[in-house]
Amino acid sequence: MNDMTGQLIAAARSGDTNMINTITAAGTPVDGRDEKGYTPLIIACYNNRPAAAKLLIESGADVDAADFGGNTALMGACFKGYAEIAELLLTSGAGIDRQHGNGGTALMFAAMFGRNDLISILLRHGAAVGITDARGMTALDLAAQQGNEKGIELMEAYFDAS
Q1: What three-state secondary structure class fits 60?
Q2: Strands, DSSP E only, in 75-149?
């Protein structure tokens, strides 16, 4: 990772849009990576910095870039429970059903961690409920495993409606 990429990632982490503008105007690629494969957009999303995420997307950041484990910004937003970030990513074209290294999806993260507002958002945007991870489990299975009754209800209603 070069110094400018490091500065861009630090600006994304803190939400410093002025610094992001300065660094990207100097020609620094917006999809540079750190030692774990995190891009500035992944970092901005994971740290709930919607203005920084929006600016990075407007500057050409790949909304589907994944870290070295296959985790995307959308997966991070669903893990952390950031509905505004998830909406931004989805309306910017993020792949809703992408799978990380173990086959998990954004919907699976939302189901596992009780992020039921995100389950609703993902279903509204067309997330596939029946995808299985490397263990053969679906988002519905993971919600049940975690005792997420509301998540189960939301996904079952999705099945009933389709």
Answers
A1: coil
A2: none
User: How many other C-beta atoms lie within 10 A of the C-beta of residue 1?
Assistant: 12
Determine the Cα–Cα distance for residues 24 and 114; give it in Å rounded to an integer. Answer: 36
Q: What is the DSSP letter of 101?
A: T
**How many C-alpha atoms does 68 have within 13 Å on its Cβ side?**
6
- Is residue 159's pLDDT more than 80? no
Q: pLDDT tens, 80-102? A: 999 999 999 999 999 999 999 99
Dist CA 117 CA 78 (whole Å): 10
Residue 35, classified by CB atoms within 10 Å of its CB into exposed (0-12), middle (13-18) or buried (19+), is exposed
Alpha-helical (H) ranges within 35-115 are: 40-46, 50-58, 73-80, 83-91, 106-112
